[in-house]
Amino acid sequence: MIGKLLGWLRNRREPARIPEALWLDVSSRLPFVSCLDSDERLRLRRLAEEFLTEKEFTAVGGLELDDAICVSIAVQGCLPILNLGLGHYRGWVGIIVYADEFIIPRCIEDEFGVVHEYQELAAGEAWDGGPLLISWRDAQMAGDGYNVVIHEFAHKLDMRNGEANGRPPLPPGMPTAEWQQVLLASYDAFCAAVDRADDGGEETVFDPYAAENPGEFFAVMSEAFFETPQRLRAEFPDLYANLARFYRQDPATRMWPAGSAAPG
Fold it and tell me: pTM of the predicted model, to two decimals?
């Protein structure tokens, strides 16, 4: 069942306002929102309201959809486009929210042309031109460097010019060659760190899943950019600088709540 707020939003030409109590309850749970200045928080709130008006939420897996769930996902998903605009999320509408992790059928062809079918347990999935799938259980883990919502919305940004390969459309004046060079150099360094960890070395600072491919690396590092920015800046300064130019934000300079993971 869609919450009352969502039903009201969708029946209006202009976005309705998220009630103050609901906004405070949702935003207080997200340290990367609490660290925004007053102007940024207001703009994020208005952006989330527009997002809720445009998108359609569906609950599956026994989850009862309510306003708090939808607002939380909207707020987290809109943070990456705070200074980019809602146009970056045009071309798709649906958001499917599962109660927990879900199964996705996969099909791959190996180097010998043999097709293998299998099932994968997932916390999120972004479909090119289609809906975005989110585990609400995982979405509630936001705040310490793991953020499935930001991860999947980063994929959506990446897909604006095709497959999710870590090369999203770049702003004017940002050379593609420079972006690619920094991304791949950082990715190779991270993959080497993962290999060392697998051989008994020190565990990586960030989720090893980022070593899957450059597209996943971009999405995982986008999580880190917004949730643990100082940690990312210390580990991959050039990558952090490029993400700051891409997202037009500099989270490492914000005033983070005491005890949050951002100082790293």
Answer: 0.89
